[in-house]
Prior knowledge:
Elements: H1 3-17, E1 34-40, E2 49-50, E3 53-56, E4 62-67, E5 74-77, H2 79-83, E6 85-93, E7 99-103, E8 109-112, E9 117-124, E10 128-134, E11 146-151
Parallel strand pairs: 1-4, 3-11
Antiparallel strand pairs: 1-2, 4-9, 5-8, 6-7, 6-9, 10-11
Amino acid sequence: MTVNSNKIKLFLVTLLLFPASLLAAGNMIDQQPIEMTIALGNTENKLRFFPSTLEFETGKLYKLVIKNPSTQKHYFTAEELSRSVFTRKVQVVNKSNKTLAEVKGHINEIEVYPGGTTEWWFVPVKTLTSSRLHCSIKGHSEAGMTGQITIK
């Protein structure tokens, strides 16, 4: 057997063993983000996520705008989501949409102060059939501040 045929066999075996779902299609740098907005609580201080279900697709760039219109702080806690995405950045923006801070890397939980807005830019890299979203402040989940996230 020649060296070239061994390389070809190794390449073919690698293709069979490497899940195609881990390959993202297209140029991730040039993608325009799909913008989604979620509100934590509301102006009436109801403990809810609006909307309470979020759905994403692997390989697409998302800009998740997390707003807190209420008068109390809330947490956007989604551990499984954070392990299923590549985070490009998290931005804290002021009311005039000026960036105040950027966080890069793995994100477990985002705390958003009253009246605050945060943008989470990410690309889902693996599927999730159903993942829990909740506010981890004591009593908030129990009062109804929960939701579901799926990645197709």
